[in-house]
Design goal:
Layout lengths: L10 H18 L1 H12 L20 H12 L8 H29 L9 H31 L8 H9 L12 H6 L2 H17 L8 H30 L14 H12 L8 H53 L2 H12 L1
Helix pairs in contact: 1-4, 1-11, 2-11, 4-5, 5-6, 5-8, 8-9, 9-10, 9-11
Length: 344
């Protein structure tokens, strides 16, 4: 049986499907996002035994973080900043899938081997370009959300108030784009994720136009795990850039993700660059799996809806044609034309 091509839908359709899947997935596992963010910004005691003074609690594990957040802030503490986070997730994924679909379509049209799938290098390049464009427009929401997630409950403010606090800080308006360089470097994460997803799909499910939910979940989870392990140090550095500086910095913000990584290595050792990787991978597995599973279903529903609209339009056109034909047959002009034709 020959390979079945997946029905084509517009970049807007793919973007809407991707954003829908991302919002649903992130809403379901949002507490893990809170936990991994807090684990990544905390500074552990160094080997010499000295500990930097901090008013924020120190968490020993994922479960310890969850239980202490609930004890201190209640269940709502696990959902701090969720509004801004979901806005950021929706906008980032909408922009990413839109630009990725546009870039991939342009490449396939211009490529001489349009019938074959792009190589891994091309998939990564297309994903990186789409990710960079998405980050430029959506990183302010990520900065504000990170501030909300790492703030203590008594200091936590609304989305707009937190944004105002960032703007009134030492960096001014450009502070909303803190971590942009790290974010641009981190476009390799979604590039690896979606590049690996497309490659794994063509490898294991080449002859399938539409994947089953568990198949899409499995491919999404595997591809995200690969990307997370490869980019975890950059993820930790980005979170450090976007949150408030640790006590050891005495209020002085980091200037680059390299500076964050140097600070972490100096005070905690190289392995600290991978702190929070447990909930990061677990969250990534769930989010990416649910995202791709939902995206595949939403795309299929979108295709079916478009086909339904097309069938309705075809029926309306046929009905209009039949009515016009019937009206023409019963018109006086048609009755007059018959005797004229016979007399001639």
């Amino acid at each position: 049986m020959g390979a079945q091509s997946k029905p084509e839908i517009s970049p807007w359709g793919r973007a809407a499907a991707g954003a829908t899947g991302a919002v649903l997935a992130n809403a379901l596992v949002y507490p893990l996002d809170i936990v991994k963010t807090r684990l990544q910004v905390q500074v552990r005691p160094n080997k010499s035994g000295s500990q930097l003074v901090s008013e924020t609690p120190h968490y020993n594990s994922t479960w310890d973080a969850i239980s202490r957040i609930v004890t201190d802030d209640g269940i709502k503490g696990l959902y701090a900043g969720i509004n801004g986070s979901l806005i950021g997730v929706a906008s980032t994924n909408f922009a990413y899938f839109y630009w990725y679909s546009v870039a991939r379509a342009l490449y396939m049209k211009s490529s001489k081997a349009a019938s074959s799938s792009p190589s891994i290098a091309i998939e990564l390049a297309l994903g990186a370009a789409a990710g960079a464009l998405a980050q430029l427009f959506t990183i302010p929401v990520a900065v504000v959300t990170t501030r909300q997630q790492t703030a203590r409950s008594e200091e936590r403010k609304s989305l707009l108030a937190t944004a105002r606090e960032v703007i009134e800080g030492p960096d001014g308006v450009p502070g909303l784009w803190r971590g942009l360089k790290a974010s641009l470097v981190l476009v390799v994460n979604p590039a690896i994720t979606y590049g690996a997803y497309e490659r794994l799909r063509t490898t294991f499910f080449k002859d399938k136009a539409n994947l089953r939910p568990w198949e899409a979940f499995l491919l999404g989870a595997l591809s995200k795990a690969m990307a997370t392990i490869a980019t975890q140090p950059l993820i930790v550095a980005k979170v450090g850039l976007q949150s408030r500086p640790p006590p050891g910095r005495k209020g002085k913000p980091f200037k680059s993700f390299v500076e964050v990584m140097q600070f972490i290595i100096e005070h905690e050792g190289p392995l600290a660059l991978f702190k929070g990787i447990g909930p990061q991978i677990f969250k990534g597995l769930l989010v990416q799996g649910i995202l791709m599973m939902t995206k595949e279903r939403v795309e299929l529903l979108f295709i079916l809806f478009l086909r339904y609209l097309q069938s309705l339009r075809s029926k309306q056109l046929r009905r209009a044609t039949d009515m016009a034909s019937a009206a023409l047959q019963h018109s006086p002009l048609s009755n007059i034309s018959k005797p004229l034709a016979m007399s001639s």
